[in-house]
Specification:
CATH class: Alpha Beta
Family: Belongs to the metallo-beta-lactamase superfamily.
Helix content: 10-25%
GO molecular function: hydrolase activity; metal ion binding
Oligomer: single chain
Strand content: 25-35%
CATH superfamily: Ribonuclease Z/Hydroxyacylglutathione hydrolase-like
Low-confidence stretches: none
CATH topology: Metallo-beta-lactamase, Chain A
Radius of gyration: 18 Å
Protein name: Glyoxylase-like metal-dependent hydrolase (Beta-lactamase superfamily II)
InterPro entries: MBL_superfamily_lactonases, Metallo-B-lactamas, RibonucZ/Hydroxyglut_hydro
Structural class: alpha+beta
Keywords: Hydrolase, Metal-binding, Zinc
Length: about 290
């Protein structure tokens, strides 16, 4: 019997006059969660927290959620997924999802990158050509300067440096380099959130009085990262700064009761957080945007 390949998961909701569509670019299974999250904790401490939250203790699912913001005048893609490089592993499905919900790549007017890791930038190119040929591009100035610096050669960041040279530098002439507080389009601003990478950004979106924060990789797991924001994460370049940023960004989100979209949160990757003594409780989106 031939296996049926289903379309990628998509989820759409309204935020004021904007339509937000989240696409599941794919998911990966990671072994030994404590090697990635809580890397400064005893493995048993990580296992115990997972078990308390009804999660497997020896494996972890990491999913990827690029998004589309349709403002009525712009179609904005926030992060691009793995692209063709991920397809042999069942990843790189954002382009397929974009088409499934009725958009063409040519309709995209802005590509906004929270940061320049491969799962966010590899979808910029398709068959050696721009995946979104009519778009302009925005990313962090500090981020771009870090990854394009030749001093990355011969360091653990060399692979990322090469990926940026291949996937991002070709768009430099069409790219706006953002600083903290810069506007992307009307109602959408960038906020510097360093630590995961030096120039990581989050995007604050407001439409008709409704708000959403797109947090990128500020937190990468709804229990191990949000529940324990001070635990070290292997993928964070500056682990102490990343923890400080997690506290700052998610304290703001919790205090103001703003929904957020996190690239690695459980699909559809949208939810809320509540402050608790040791960290934050994640509350997934249900029907809040439908009423």
């Amino acid at each position: 019997m031939t296996a049926v390949v289903l379309p990628p998961e998509t989820h759409q909701f309204k935020l004021g006059s904007c339509t937000i569509t989240v696409v599941k670019d794919g998911a990966s299974i990671l072994d030994n969660p404590w090697e990635t999250f809580g890397s400064n904790q005893a493995p048993e401490t990580v296992r115990k927290l997972l078990a308390q939250n009804f999660l497997p203790t020896e494996k972890l699912v990491n999913s990827y959620a690029p998004a589309i913001i349709d403002t009525g005048s712009d179609v904005i893609v926030v992060d691009t997924g793995f692209g063709a490089a991920g397809r042999p592993r069942g990843l790189g499905r954002f382009r397929e999802g974009l088409k499934a919900v009725g958009y063409t790549p040519e309709q995209v007017t802005v590509v906004a990158l929270t940061h320049l890791h491969g799962d966010h930038i590899n979808g910029l190119m398709e068959d050696g050509a721009p995946a979104f040929p009519n778009a302009r591009y925005v990313t962090g100035a500090i981020e771009y300067e870090f990854w394009t610096d030749k001093s990355r050669e011969g360091t653990p960041a060399e692979g990322g440096h090469k990926a940026v040279l291949a996937n991002v530098v070709p768009f430099a002439e069409k790219m706006t380099f953002l600083r903290d507080g810069d506007q992307i389009v009307s109602g959408m601003t960038a906020m510097l959130a360093p630590g995961h990478t030096p120039g990581h950004l989050v995007f604050h979106l407001e439409s008709d009085g409704k708000q959403l924060v797109m947090t990128g990789d500020t937190a990468n797991h709804y229990i191990l990262s949000l529940g324990r924001p001070d635990w070290e994460v292997r993928f964070d370049i500056d682990k102490a700064q990343a923890a400080k940023t997690r506290r700052r960004i998610f304290d703001m989100i919790a205090t103001d009761r703003i929904p957020f979209l996190g690239f690695h949160m459980p699909f559809p990757a949208v939810g809320f957080v509540e402050k608790q003594p040791e960290g934050l409780r994640y509350v997934p989106k249900t029907y809040q945007f439908d009423l």
